[in-house]
# Entry
Amino acid sequence: MSVTMQGQNQYQQAPAAVHAIYEQPAVQLTGLVKRYGLNKALDGVDLTFESGKVVGLLGHNGSGKTTMLKIIAGLRSPSSGTVKVFGMAPGVKTKQRVAFLPEVNAYYEWMTIDYLIDFAKSFHPDLSWERAEVLKKFMDLKGESKVGALSKGQQARLKLVIGLARNADLMLLDEPLAGIDPPSRARILQALVGEFRQEHQTLIISTHEVKEAEPIFDHVVFLCEGKVALQGDAEALRASTGHSMEELFGEVLE
Amino acid sequence: MRFKIDEGSPIYRQILETFIRQIACGQWSPGEKLPSIREVAEMARVNPNTIARAFQELERTGLAETKRGEGTFVTTDSNAIAECREDTARQIWTEFLEKIRELGFTNAEIKRLASGLKEESV
# Structure
């Protein structure tokens, strides 16, 4: 009897706990400032990103996009202000749930793609081989190819394979489309849309190429010189302004 | 399935209208299963939350219904489909009238034009 009771209690508590995690914003930034010498890369940013959304972080080069992503990833610390990822300060605990895909490629050139996936799995135990296999096929990559021999578009696709195979709760993608050929861009966007799991995942994607990417955003943030120039729900902005996010990008940031 | 999207107006509404028109013209038959939210999202390269909203609105029109765990199906209610067909025709007709009136056509001229078209097609 007591065993059943205990079992029931656990069962009743589990959904509540899941609910609590889901209700929490994925990211909360308050009064965020980051100084590099005399320069302010971020100058008083207040933002909240709900869980289950795809966020477009839009701005020109040098607007503070990369700095913001690195702070959320826990790779930089803010000069002042607070950062909360799933309600916690960025650290070991949040890093297990966050995947950061930098713009520059940091992979060893001598590795083959399969070796690299194995290598990545050694420090990201959540990486799924099955998912990596599916994504590799979708991205038209061969396991035996050497990283150093890949084109820029193939390298960008490989980065996505490894990032998406982790299925992290928060994915931070820094300029995943910059300088990449149109077929690769289309593939990347299709994979992002197909793999995104709104039940638990949040994506923050920085880009200055808005046109192709904008249909995949729920929420957009326009960053200008370290400040938020405009933010909101993409569909609501379309309805209220009659403009695309690309057009708003031009209006707000130029 | 191809989607032409104008990013300057809400995307969910365009997806919704695409499905309404396709159901109206019989491209999907009564009771037929529609592609899943994820399939449409991938085809159109649009956020799945946006597609989900379009599907919700489609259900509200009564043209489709979602069966839990099975997917979304076109309604088998032939009246609802007939009504949708009429609504769509009326919408196209209104758009046409607006455009042709911009050209300065009067009702009599429009009628003359319409009867001429009828003879041409016979």
Q: What stands out?
A: Chain A has a mean pLDDT of 89. The beta strands of chain A are 27-36, 39-49, 54-58, 80-85, 98-101, 170-174, 202-207, 219-224, 227-233.
